[in-house]
Amino acid sequence: MTQTIAGSNGVPGGDVNPLRAGVASSRITDPCNIVFFGASGDLCKRMLMPAMYNLRLEDIMPANFGIVGLSRCPWDDAAFQAEMRKSIDEFSRSGAAKDPLWSDFAKHLSFVDGSFEDVAAFKDLRRQLEDNDAKLGTGGNRLFYLSTPPSLFGKIIDMLDEAGLGPNANKTGWTRIIIEKPFGTDLDSARALQAEVSKVFDERSVYRIDHYLGKEPVQDIMALRFANVIFEPLWNRRYVQSVQITAAETVGVEERGGYYDHAGALRDMIQNHVMNLLALVAMEPPVSPTADNIRDEKFKVLSALRPMDRTRIFQDTARGQYDAGSISGKPVPGYRQEPNVDPLSNTETYAAVKLYIDNWRWADVPFFLRSGKRLQRKNSEIAITFKSIPHRLFGEAGDSIDNNVLVMKIQPEEGVSLSFSAKVPGPKMHIRAVSMDFNYGTGFGVVSAPAYERLIGDAMRGDATLFTRWDAVQQAWVQVMPILEQWEAATDESFPNYPAGTQGPASSDRMLASEGAEWRKI
Ligand code: BG6
Fold first, then answer.
1. How far does the centroid of ligand 1 lie from the alpha carbon of residue 3, in Å?
2. What is the mean pLDDT of the chain?
3. 441: pLDDT confidence band, cut at 50, 70 and 90?
């Protein structure tokens, strides 16, 4: 039985929002158990457990659920519950956990202390799940969430199989697996991991998470394109001059130097998050909004990407590494001075790539992708720059008539902005660029739910639309491999080549200048 705990409609525990009246927002998930591998880790504390709590608070998750943590950690159920309460208190968007919801929620949390290498721990897990099915009414449905270091993914999957927890052994309900990024560190390792996954799970049960896809404005890309008539006729090479996709951060590598120094910006952001944005913005309209129809179209875009010309990698890409500088007036160290980073590191903290999509819609339109850490501002956006007017009628001498630009703002602002030319009031025909802006917060009167909440809820309902299919992951690796290989083979002697708190390296500006283009200011 589903018990209503609090009001809904965007603000946890809040009143019904009149701007959203008539919009069904609660998407009830199936009863199920969700198992977090790596439950004592940072992701679980900061993101996953607060997401679970808010799914329950919002009534999206029904009352018959179980949450099981598995880690090597000397916790019992009570200690796990106490730790998770602390995480929710600290990180949940709805504030500290409150009774009566918390005391009910806590009863659904149990913990298995064990090693991912030990089949006995997985057998304990199985007993716990069977117990939960009997006591909590979870119906044999199981969602495994791999939030461990990626080197353990294959091992955990083997163990699940050995302990009789694979999908084929489950005769009563469904079995699904969520796999965190990165899915491989290059094409070969991604293929090797996929071989391990597919021994136990078929593609329909695999949910490869890319948290960017759970961001509300990212989901809106499709709505903007396919729920309006005015954009799609212009969305092609006849009208579009270029597309810029930016994922800029102000943070450095923080405590993740050990991981990041072997990854770099191309692997960490471009191969997954930014490529997913590219696919959504460039794909053809799907036949229907089903997960596979949408993912078919995204895959087609990635497979139409023009392979990188190996003789031009250093002209068609740019890489950077941050030096000491300042962010919001505070001094910050350079990348090579960060903990667990090689003091002579050749790892890029900024990557920019120029791509072309060789199909009828996009032939010869450059797509400029960039992502970097310690840049001037946090800003993720997609900007479509349209071609210039064919013939100039207006504007006093000296007035420039700017190209129209449509910007899909992903974060921190969430919205859409269209710039166009208008006459400046007065007797003369001066022309200036002005803009029409839409902002989600004020437009709908809600704060978007964090991506993990949306994505975990979707996996519990069996909706894989916002998860990356293997063919797309593979294709994205195919595209970036020539860049990775050349970057790794050639030390960049200019590193560090941008001070923290700036727009990135000059080489990136040169890459655009060679196309007669300029980056938008971050
Ligand atoms: C993660 C990367 O996938 O995305 C991090 O590993 C990065 O390095 C993060 O900071 C950015 O996510 P968001 O949602 O803050 O833009």
1. 35
2. 93
3. confident
Q: Residue 417 in contact with residue 440, Cβ under 8 Å?
A: no
Residue 388 pLDDT > 80? yes
Q: Does 381 sit in the ligand 1 pocket, CB within 6 Å?
A: no
Closest atom of ligand 1 relative to the 272 alpha carbon = 3
pLDDT in tens, 396-413: 777 889 999 999 999 999
For residue 15, pLDDT beyond 70: no
The residue annotated as part of the active site, out of 211, 273, 391, 430, is: 273
If phi > 0 it is left, if psi is from -120 to 50 it is alpha, else beta; for residue 164 that is left
CA distances from 174 to 167, 170, 381, 452, 460 (A): 7, 7, 37, 21, 10
pLDDT at residue 6, as a whole number: 39
- What are phi and psi for residue 322, nearest 5 degrees? -80, 145
Look up 273 and say whether it is catalytic.
Answer: yes
* Omega before 62 within 30 of 0, i.e. cis: no
Nearest atom in ligand 1 to 253's CA: 8
Q: In the numeric block, which tokens belong to residue 70? A: 């598995």
With a 6 A CB cut-off, is 133 part of the ligand 1 pocket? no
Query: Residue 340: CB partners within 8 Å, gap ≥ 6?
Result: 257, 258, 261
